[in-house]
Amino acid sequence: MDAKQLETFDIFNRMPSALCSAIAEKASLQSYPADETILKQEEKAQYFYGLVSGEVELRFIFRDRVLKSDVRHEESVVRRWETIDTPVVLETLQPGDLFGWSSLVSHNVYTGSVVATQPSEAIAIRAGELRQLLDSDPSAGYMFMNTLSEIIASRLHWRTNKLLESWIEAFGVQHIK
Q1: Which of 94, 100, 149, 169 has a CA between 20 and 30 Å from the CA of residue 108?
Q2: Which pLDDT value is given to residue 155?
Q3: Which CATH number characterizes residue 156's domain?
Q4: Which domain holds residue 85?
Q5: What is the pairing mode between strands 98-99 and 76-93?
Q6: Over the stretch 104-119, which tens digit does the pLDDT of each residue have?
Q7: For residue 174, is it within any domain?
Q8: pTM given for the model
């Protein structure tokens, strides 16, 4: 992969050119047709991605356990727990956006799924290799992780606001216990 293509992402364009070139050597350009799942929630997080073209959705599967009762006879009731999965679209990502950051900052499990909504291309970098390269240049690694933390904070702030708006609209309350 060409370092110039990697430098189109803000998180990489401030890095020393030698480090950016080393990262580009480890990166690959992946193509995904519409409706293909790129990464799955709760799957081992191994790659960090940058969207080059197309559009992808960041989705979260909300799992709810519900007690189901089935009256079979007047005196017989069968009860069982059932898990209901409800997919929620958290965000639509555009070219230049990053995803798969759980591979770099958490316990290495993706916290959501990413699905291509149209034919898309993304740069994929194995997270372990990226971490090793960032460790080789601590100041560049610090800048990278600082920028990544700003991106994460911005997304979490936006989601928190949306969650609170929905909560107030659904329940008409302004106090969460």
Answers
A1: 94
A2: 84
A3: 2.60.120.10
A4: 3-160
A5: unpaired
A6: 987 789 989 999 999 9
A7: no
A8: 0.82
